[in-house]
Structure formats: structure tokens, C-alpha cells
Amino acid sequence: MRHIISILMENESGALSRVAGLFSARGYNIESLTVAPTEDASLSRMTLVTRGSDDVIEQITKQLNKLIDVVKLIDLAESAHIERELMMIKVKTTEKTRAEVKSMADVFRGRILDFTPETYVIEVTGPSEKLDAFIAALDADSIIEVVRSGATGISRGEKGLHL
Amino acid sequence: MELSGAEILIRSLKDEGVEYIFGYPGGAVLHIYDALFRQDDVKHILVRHEQGATHAADGYARATGLPGVVLVTSGPGATNAVTGIATAYMDSIPMVVISGQVPSPVIGSDAFQEVDMIGISRPCVKHNFLVKDVNLIAETIKKAFYVATTGRPGPVVVDIPKDITDPRIKVPYKYPKKVSIRSYNPAVAGHKGQIKKAVDLLLTAERPMIYSGGGVVIGEASKELTEFSQLLGYPVTNTLMGLGAYPATDKQFIGMLGMHGTYEANMGMHESDVIIAIGARFDDRVTGKLDMFCPYAKIIHIDVDPASISKTVKVDIPIVGEVKPVLEQMIDLIKESKKTPNKKALETWWKQIKDWQAIDCLEYDRKSPLIKPQFVIEQLYEVTKGDAYVTSDVGQHQMWAAQYYKFDKPRRWINSGGLGTMGFGMPAAIGVKLAHPDADVACVTGEASIQMCIQELSTALQYKTPIKIVNLNNRFMGMVRQWQEFSYESRYSHSYLDTLPDFVKLAEAYGHVGMRIDKPEQVRPALEEAFAMKDRTVFLDIITDQTENVYPMIENGKGHHDMKLRIAATGTTTDRELA
Ligand SMILES: Cc1cc2nc3c(=O)[nH]c(=O)nc-3n(C[C@H](O)[C@H](O)[C@H](O)COP(=O)(O)OP(=O)(O)OC[C@H]3O[C@@H](n4cnc5c(N)ncnc54)[C@H](O)[C@@H]3O)c2cc1C
Ligand SMILES: Cc1ncc(C[n+]2csc(CCOP(=O)(O)OP(=O)(O)O)c2C)c(N)n1
Ligand SMILES: [Mg+2]
Hints:
A: alpha+beta; five-stranded antiparallel beta sheet; four-stranded antiparallel beta sheet; B: 579 residues; alpha/beta; six-stranded parallel beta sheet; 36% helix; binds thiamine diphosphate
């Protein structure tokens, strides 16, 4: 199953490589990984998307918790949560296809960020599956470039991941 | 008080209570060596290779429970230390390794003797630190010791760029009394409810087994394990790392388990209905094939490291905590409980175990005209009255030492189990001897292993650490040869060492005593003579039967109940010819 693991860790050089190193050393897969500072300058927040059986996910969270730089973590998949990923996609357009691409973007609540006579850059935000669906909806030959931020997430309700 | 970074480092070690530091100098640590020179609180042991430094510090740590401390230079000094760091990591040994680094301004420029020690060591340390500010040295050292010695212990590397130890830059020094790390809070006490559940289950057992490991040694819980086991009257088996945590000469002890464990211990595990694993980590050398492991048992597991629990074998009652307080609580609960162990079932169980024991899985040919390695270990046991510190290298000799030397006390058996590092034994023995100058220290080794760190014989002379090296010389990488015999139709590919040195001369060249023993009747007198030489390191080169194999054995892919026994193995061992 797919899990989104949210990690608060010390904002120190090397912390990221400890997490990445752990995954490669133990053969866990990483589907995506994002990391950025938080409102507390001493902490950064990492969101890691991985897949595995319950046993594997249990080992992953235990091994992550063992890293000294990891302050706290939660597996978002365990409770209600919101997931968002941002994608920017550059597509080829022609006079014929332009309107069609635009309306497709509208369906996915995408925004056109840039255009030239031959291209569009479209921004789409949402759960990763929605971005997959948008890509699938486009004509594969028209896609020039795809950039995705990797998923991030937050739990619903009052509980939060903080110190 | 204003001190330089180098002085702060050494003062911090002193204030941490460090007695010995094992090291080797080089450019990046010259400021530190200069600070070492101008004091004599922390004693420096100059090894001959940085791997030797880590193993010696490791031996010191295993024999005392105190952290071992190592100092190496950047680049090759640091990389040479990696094998020893990984060795300590796999066996959860507390160690602090200080490595020099190139000056901060040139880090990342492929400077002379630069390696990314933080990156290289990361997968085999509990944690590592790069010190970027002279004002952070004392605190970092305190943190390093704190992390290395608490929870599940392990090695910690502190990488210090040369400019941080500059003698011209002086800053105020104060060694912190305590540190805390917000993201690091190892569990101590176990969960009360879980402990209660575990005791209830234990008292319903009909075919119980106590499976204890290195965690009992590390956690100083031998006394508690012994009381707990004797209160219940259940059979006890130890892992290779746990030997000595429960007295081997006690009647409840049924030997080591696992690949080269006893028949009774492995059969006991296989047939058991309730197993309590205490500070043991279900290593693959212990479990054999996982889907055949302990098919009838409910399993209780005590471990400080949650990641050790249900890693390979799913357990029924996990208890995260230090063995000592958890066992204390269990002992109290058993004493208070109205329930008692099922006497009748236990009688039947012990009878079954006695039947397995009657097979005498450790018997060997005592009439052989050749020296049997098992015989040497038995003699070593007798000559040292079972009270020596025994280090070992890796191979058949290691297994024979584990099987035939009956360790009654913890920290007496010192070997590399998890990484299986050849070259560990002799430098480790030096560390042990420094820690216990009055004790007998033996290093059981093989002619291949001993050559991996042979240069440390020189260290043994310089620091007057009289150890006895028992070289079970079978002219083979015996353990490799054994696997080739069993699994590769005796194609002995590169497991034979064609040009062995004359170990007697070699020992003498290093300033020690060398002895060559090639007849069984010489073994006892030679050992007696060697141990009587209290102030000399003695190298006993013992020419053993090179066809001997380690039995019993669980071969790859087999379960505990499917051991290869000597009697069942083809032919006797002496009628086969090797080389
Ligand atoms: C050639 C060779 C053959 C081998 N054959 C065998 C064999 O036949 N049988 C065998 O048993 N081994 C054998 N080994 C060793 C094997 O590889 C493992 O090293 C060993 O089995 C691990 O022992 P352990 O389970 O006691 O764990 P250790 O490695 O000693 O780990 C200790 C465990 O206890 C925990 N712990 C530490 N401190 C505490 C504390 N204070 N409180 C609670 N928990 C704590 C740790 O988290 C860890 O999980 C062999 C090795 C070699 C090189
Ligand atoms: C550094 C290292 N290299 C290789 C091995 C693989 N290995 C395990 S046992 C062994 C042979 C050891 O031979 P020896 O020291 O003579 O001991 P014996 O088995 O003959 O008693 C080897 C090569 C190892 N454990 N460590
Ligand atoms: Mg050999």
C-alpha cells in the first residue's frame, strides 16, 4: 500500500542524506520525497511517499525514528488527511488543439501560467492521482516537460505534527 | 579557562572519564596529538593500523561496558577505521571515534587526504557529527558519548576539521554535566501491561524456552537473567553474543542455538510453545529458514530497540525497554503471582531435552593422533579454570571456542558476531588486557585471521599487554573449506594458504615468545607454560587436524529441527585427505 510519511527533523546538513541513505541501504522504495523549512527555523519537514506491506512500513517508521535527526513522524495513511502535489506541465499546442487543451486544464482546475504560440505551461495542484489523471488525459506526444513537486500532506482535524 | 580546540577535545575526554584512547597520528590530527603530548590523564595507545585501533577500543568496551575511544587522521586513517566501526555497529558496542578532517575552508575541494567521513561512516554508525565551530567541541563530545552509550549502544563518529583544533584560537572551556537531545529518548522501562501479559503467558507454558542474547551482556542484566530463569526452572539457550550472560555450567543451560548451536537448543526452540527472547535479535544465523522457525511457539521479545522487534520474526508480545528493569519487574510479578510454572509439563519437557542431550552433539574423536581443535579449547578452559577473557577471530576456531569454552560470566567471550570480522581477535585482546591487566586473556584464532591484523603484535610489546594467542592452525580457511566441502563438492577454491609464515619466528621477531605444538600430548603442557609466563605475550601455533568440521550445523535453507550431526555426516573425519 501507498503511505505518506511526514517527518519533522532537525534542520541540519546531513539530515536529508541520512533519510535517503536509510532507504537505499535497506532497500525501501521512495516514490517521492520533499523537504522544506518550517515556521521553526530549527526544524524541517519532510514528506516521503513509499509503498510496502504493513510489515515493511512498520520497519520503515521504526528505522526512521531511530535516526537521531528525526524528531517526530506520522504515517498520514493511518488517518484522515489532505494530500497535495503541484505539477507544472509544458505541452505543445497548435491552433487546432489549443482550445481543447485549455478546456481539459479547466476540468482539472489547472491554470495556464505561460503560453507561446506553440506551447502552454499549465499548473495543476491536487492529490498525486489527479495529476496522473491529467497527464493521462493529454495526448502523450504533446507533452514537452513535466515537473512535479512530490506529494505533501497534512492531517485533518485538530491534531498536528509539531514539537 | 581558555583552551584551544585540540586542548578542549582532550580535556573533554578526560572529563568524560576516558582512560585510554587508541589511535594513530597524521596531518589532520597533529594539533590534537600535540595537546595529547602535553598531558598524561588520557593514555594514548599507538596501534600499527587504524583497524587495530578500532578493534582494540572495541575489545576494551566489550570487556568493561565502557565506551572505547579511537583517534584517527583524515582520509586513509579514517577509511582504515571503517571496518572496526562497522564491527562495533553490528554488535551494538559503544565507541566514540574521533577522525581528523581537512580544514573547513577546503572541505569539498578534494584536498589532500580528504574523504567524506560523515558520508562513508553514515551507514555503520549510530550517529555522526561534523564539528564546525570550536565552541561546539565540548558539547559535541558529550553528545557523542551520550548517544554511543545509551539505548542500544553503538559507534559514534566525530569528524573534526583541522582548523577547529588550531592551537592559536582559544575559547572558554566548560564540559557539560548533562546533555539532552530532543529527538533522542531511548526507552528504559517496559510497558507494564505488556510485561504482565508476558508473565501470564510464561506461566502457562508447557514447553518453554529462554532465548537470550547480547542485549543481556550489554544491559548488565546477567544477574537478573539468572534469577529469572532459575525462578521459572526453564531451559536457557544463548546466542553467540549472549554466551556468559547465563552460566554455561548451570544445569538449565542447554548451549548455544543457531547454525552451530547444540542439537538440544535448536530442537528445543523448534518444539517450544512459549519462547521469551531477551536482548536477542533473531539473526538469520539463529533462525535458519524463517518459515520453519519455531512453528508452535508464542513469542515474547524484550529489546530496547523497537526496530529489532518483529523485524524478521513476528512476535506476539513485544516489550520495548532495557532488559534489566524489565526482568526485575518480571521477577517481582512471578513472585507475586498465584500461578506457578506447570510442574508436570516441565518434567516431561526436561525429559525430552535430556533425550536430545543424550545424542551428545558435541562429541568428537578424542583418540585421534592429530590435535583436535575442540580438544585445544577444552584444555584452554581447564588451564584457565574457565575464568579467562577469550577473544576470537572468525571461522571454525570461533565456533569451537564458543562451543567448548564454558563461559560462566558475561563479558568474558569477545568476538565479532554480526559482521564476522577476521582480524578482530588479537587487537581486541590487547584492549581487554589493558582493561583487565591481572586477568588471563587468550585470543583464539586461525592462521588466516591472525594475519589480517598481525602488525598489532608490535603494539602488544610496546604497551606490555601479555596475551596468549592460540592459533588453531589448520592450514586452511577452515570455515570456507567446510562450506566448499558441503556445498561445492569439495572444490577448495582459494581457501588454502600456500605460504604460511613461520609463526614462531614471526612472534619472536616481534619480541614475543613463539611455540609450535603438533602433538596432542603437548597441548596441555604448552598452555600451562604459556599462561605461567605472566608478563610475556605467547604465540601458540597449534597444528590441528585440517579435516575437522564444525558440527552440528544447520545448513542453508534448513530449519532448527533439521541439523547435520557429526554421526550422520559421511565417514569419519580423519580418513579424508585434504592437502
Ligand atoms: C562464523 C559465524 C557463525 C555464527 N554462528 C552463529 C550461531 O550458530 N548461533 C548464533 O547465535 N550466532 C551465530 N553467529 C552470530 C550471528 O551472526 C549474530 O551476531 C548473533 O546471533 C546475534 O546475537 P544476538 O541476537 O544476541 O544479538 P546482538 O547482536 O548481541 O544484539 C543485541 C540485541 O539486544 C538489544 N539490546 C542491546 N542492549 C539492550 C538492553 N540494555 N536491553 C534490551 N535490549 C538490548 C539490541 O537492540 C539487539 O537487538 C555467527 C557469526 C559468525 C561470524
Ligand atoms: C575480513 C574478512 N574476510 C573474509 C571473511 C570470510 N571468512 C569467514 S571465515 C574465513 C576463514 C577463516 O580462516 P581461519 O582464520 O584460518 O579460521 P578457521 O576457519 O580455519 O578456523 C573467511 C575467509 C571474513 N569473515 N572476514
Ligand atoms: Mg584456518
